[in-house]
Amino acid sequence: MAHRSPGWRLTEVASLLDTLFGGSSLGISFHDRELRFVYVNDTLARLGGVAAQDCVGRTFAQIVPAAAPVVVPYL
What we know:
The chain is mostly helical. It has 5 helices and 2 strands, in the order αββαααα. It has helices at residues 8-22, 42-48, 52-55, 60-63, 68-71; strands at 29-31, 37-40. β1 and β2 form a beta hairpin.
């Protein structure tokens, strides 16, 4: 068996999740403890009118301020 770095499995899983969530017709995101996006699929990003990569590191309120009062309490 070929030697693999300790992070190979994490990279593989991240790739699989990106494939799964990226192709979903549902808006999907993951947030850190401060409710900043750490992952946003294209479906959800389109609802905010931005590219998915532009959401990472920002809060929901920064992306869709008008909807934030309704959505953020559920996050």
